[in-house]
Structure formats: structure tokens, C-alpha cells
From TrEMBL:
One of its GO terms (biological process) is siderophore-iron import into cell. Keywords: Cell membrane, Membrane, Transmembrane, Transmembrane helix, Transport. GO terms for cellular component: plasma membrane. The chain crosses the membrane at residues 20-42, 76-93, 105-124, 131-150, 162-182, 210-233, 253-277, 289-310, 322-339. CDD domains: TM_ABC_iron-siderophores_like. One of its GO terms (molecular function) is transmembrane transporter activity. Gene3D superfamilies: ABC transporter involved in vitamin B12 uptake, BtuC. It is found in: Cell membrane. Coiled coil: none annotated. This is Iron complex transport system permease protein. Belongs to the binding-protein-dependent transport system permease family. FecCD subfamily.
Length: 346
């Protein structure tokens, strides 16, 4: 299925949501406020003057201005990771037709973390580009394994079976990560942030390494969104509309794995962003993935950046890793969603 075929599919939702423009404006305002907060707040709160000096006056070398400059790469990295996880969650929910699918819930990011830890411990890898390729392999294999386990038995891959398979797989893989790291202090010291996830590793080198994977995953997600709308009507209807359902699931899942795996390789297994972002956008704009996918990117960027700022404020003078904050917020929401009767399918 090429891009022209995808773009020609009939859409279940043919019109732009009436409140889309308003939501888009509000999201961009919130995004701007999040960026300002990320640059200004932390263990060292900067003044407005220091913020302006750090952004627009490179000749000013005050301590506050330098703090702002150091936070720029972290903020950009946080926005990119949040966008990637938001879109990855939207894709996984659509492909599995599971409204509570998320890279963390399905164990995908834990599989990515395991492969990278194995590479560090046994292959002596040390560069971000190597981390990403190992993370992609681990994420892909874990996704296939979880979906295969969840598809066994009567009823196929139901939402509850996938969640249970993902939770069990994630627990097992987390134990393996711990078993590999404990006797190897150099691995634990260097990558202990993976236990919870952190955007503190944000640097321009990591951003440049991450960027091609982010662009590729986002592009595939946007191009497949119309066909995923057709898939939401059921395989038979989608096939009648000319959608190659098998290839569509493969390429969409591939994009989700790329986004999740690359993020995990550089930031660790940050959970619940895809779940939170996608549900908020669906609640406001409806199910049309032509709008859900790009808006989930913005919502994911906002949520992760806010969580990072909260972690820095709560953990001052150190910081509370962003993975702890997102888990604290996301776990109760997951429980509420799992209790709803509508969780059976999208």
C-alpha cells in the first residue's frame, strides 16, 4: 500500500472537528508555557531577565543565563521524546484496537531497555547510535512476542489479554535487566536512570541522533492515519475500501516501535505518555486519527515536559526522574480505564 492509496481511502470521519482550531491554539499556548517553565524552573529558578539573556544575548555570561542555555537542549529533547511516545501510543492503540495500549503497558520499552543493557554489559557498546539499533531490535521482538501471547486462545488479541501479556512480559524483562546490572557496577552507575526513565541525558548529540528516527516514525504515522481510520471499522470493511490490512498493521506497528525504541534508548522506559496523551485528545476531538495522531504528538510533548518540570521542583536541589512522575499520574488513570466497560475495543 503506497501513500497515494492511503490518501485516497474513504474516511469514517469526513470533516474537521468543530473545535479543532480552538484546541490547536490552546495546545500551542500550553506548549509555549511549558517551554518557558522548563527553561526557567528547576533547582535554580531563573528570573525573566536571566531567561532573556540566556535565549537572546549570548554575550551575557551570568550564572542564570548559562543555566538557561544548558536547559535548552534538555527542553528540546523532552519535547521530542514526549511527541514520539504520544504518537507511538496512538499507533499501538489503533493497530491493536486496544484503548489502553501503550509502549510501557505492552512491555515494549522494557524490551528495548533489556537489549541495550545487554549490549553494554556483553558487547561493550558506548555510542547513542548503537543504543538505538539495539533498542529497536528489543522493542520489535517484545512487541511481536506480546501480541503473539495475547492472541492465543479464544477471542484472539482482546484488550485485557494484551494488557496481561504485556504486564507479565514487562515484569520478566525488568527482572532480567536488574539481574544483568546488579553484578556489574559500571552498567548500573551509567544507566541506572533506566530504572525509571529520565530526560536528563538530553544533549545536542542525542537530539541529532534521535531526529531521523523521530521524523521517519512521524511521517509513517501521518501517512497511514487515513487507512487506520478505515481499519477501525473492521478488517472486512477496510479490505472492501482497498486497505491492505496486514501491511497496514505491520508498517504502523513498525513506526510505533521505532518511536518507542529510539526514545527508550536515549531516555529510558518512560511510561504512560502515549496512554494519557491519546486519551485526552480522543476525548476532546473524537476518534479521527488524522487529527488524533498529530495532536497526540503535541499533547505528549506537553505532558512529558510538565512532568519533567514537576520532577525538578519536587526533587530540588536534585531532581525526581520524570518516569516516576508519569507513573504516579498514569497508573491511577490506567486503573480507571481498565474498569470501564468500554475498554473491550476501540
Amino acid at each position: 500500500m503506497n501513500s497515494s492509496t492511503v490518501s485516497e481511502q474513504k474516511q469514517p470521519a469526513a470533516h474537521t472537528p468543530r473545535n479543532f482550531t480552538l484546541v490547536l491554539v490552546i495546545c500551542f499556548i500550553l506548549l509555549g508555557l511549558c517551554v518557558i517553565a522548563s527553561l526557567a524552573l528547576g533547582s535554580r529558578v531563573t528570573s525573566f531577565r536571566e531567561l532573556m539573556d540566556g535565549l537572546f544575548h549570548p554575550d551575557v555570561q551570568s550564572f542564570g543565563a548559562n543555566v538557561v542555555r544548558k536547559r535548552i537542549s534538555r527542553t528540546v529533547f523532552s519535547l521530542m521524546c514526549g511527541a514520539a511516545l504520544g504518537v507511538s501510543g496512538a499507533l499501538m492503540q489503533s493497530v491493536t484496537r486496544n484503548p489502553i495500549a501503550d509502549p510501557s503497558i505492552l512491555g515494549v520499552n522494557t524490551g528495548a531497555a533489556l537489549f541495550v543493557v545487554c549490549g553494554i554489559a556483553f558487547l561493550n557498546i558506548s555510542s547513542a547510535s548503537q543504543y538505538i539499533w539495539l533498542a529497536l531490535a528489543g522493542a520489535a521482538l517484545t512487541a511481536v512476542f506480546v501480541f503473539g501471547i495475547g492472541s492465543m486462545g479464544r477471542g484472539g488479541a482482546t484488550p485485557i489479554k494484551l494488557v496481561l501479556a504485556g504486564a507479565a512480559t514487562s515484569a520478566a524483562l525488568s527482572s532480567l535487566v536488574t539481574a544483568i546490572m546488579i553484578p556489574r557496577s559500571y552498567v548500573m552507575d551509567k544507566f541506572r536512570f533506566w530504572q525509571v526513565g529520565s530526560v536528563g541525558s538530553g544533549s545536542w548529540d542525542n537530539i541529532s541522533t534521535f531526529l531521523p528516527f523521530l521524523i521517519a516514525g512521524m511521517l509513517i504515522a501521518v501517512l497511514t492515519a487515513p487507512a487506520l481510520n478505515a481499519l477501525a471499522l473492521g478488517d472486512d470493511v477496510a479490505t472492501g475500501l482497498g486497505v491492505k490490512t496486514g501491511f497496514l498493521r505491520f508498517i504502523s506497528a513498525f513506526a510505533g516501535v521505532v518511536l518507542c525504541g529510539a526514545t527508550t534508548a536515549l531516555a529510558g522506559p518512560i511510561g504512560f505518555i502515549g496512554l494519557l496523551a491519546t486519551h485526552v485528545i480522543r476525548l476532546i476531538l473524537g476518534p479521527d486519527l488524522r487529527f488524533v495522531i498529530p495532536m497526540s504528538a503535541i499533547a505528549g510533548a506537553i505532558i512529558l515536559t510538565v512532568a519533567d518540570v514537576i520532577g525538578r521542583l519536587l526533587g530540588s536541589p536534585g531532581e525526581l526522574e520524570v518516569g516516576v512522575v508519569t507513573a504516579f499520574i498514569g497508573a491511577p488513570i490506567l486503573i480507571l480505564l481498565a474498569m470501564r466497560s468500554k475498554v473491550r475495543s476501540l
